[in-house]
Amino acid sequence: MEKDILSVISRDTAGFSKGQKLIAKYIVENYDKAAFMTASKLGKTVGVSESTVVRFAAELGYDGYPEMRKALQEMIRNRLTSIQRIEVSKELITNTNILKDVLTSDMEKLRSTLETVDQAQFDAAVETILAARRIYIVGMRSSTALADFMGFYMNMLLDNVRTVYDNAANEVYEQIMRIGEGDVLIGLSFPRYSSRTLKAMKYAKSRGAAAIGITDNDTSPFAGVADICLYAKSDMVSFVDSLVAPLSLINALIVSVGLHTREGLSNTFTTLEQLWKDYDVFAGSEG
What we know:
The chain has 287 residues and is an alpha/beta fold. Helix content is 56%, strand content 8%. The protein is built from 14 helices and 5 strands. A 5-stranded parallel beta sheet has the order 2-1-3-4-5, sandwiched between helices. α4 packs across α5 (50-59).
């Protein structure tokens, strides 16, 4: 089946019933909102029954409405502008309990990530990191926070880690120009995907380096480039990117790498604790 559901709808319009044409018209004109509606909500919005919506999904060749909605979400994942995301959030988040809505949504992303993460790919990522000559971590835009977090802790565990920054003073390619065989580039990106991170990964691959992608699902452009891909859910519920599940996945990677270097980890933190004490790094730690 074609991945772009709008193409499927356009192809089959002539055979639709009156109710199905209403659904099709609404989806084409409001795909950003329809992608996050239940069958019941979509039916009420359009003015048809829930069963008509379910039959519409079957007419398009989907096993059920959830599969059709997933196809819509995958299509728009990298299309929505910030303005559209604000409009979507109005449908999904109520003003009565924003705290509960957002935290519940984040917990669902964590649960979904735990259920779908590939343990073999996770183990392969850890082994690749441990065996690497040099490790480059690249994350841009909102993923910069993830790259900083990962780089901060990986630098405590290993002495061959470099976090790559995207700024005018130091171009990305200048920072990874010596990458090559035996090295690994870890690229982090979530919708809307960073083209610069993707290009950096492609450059690393062209130089013979390994590539680990940390992204949201197998439709991500990073899935076709990285040697190893780890997926963490980051669906859009507002104009703010949800990085809870990606951060948790990165946390698991850091802990796993640390436990594989147990003796070095103890020595590192023994040294750090002394440094922190000597130079009063933490408030209230004097004496």
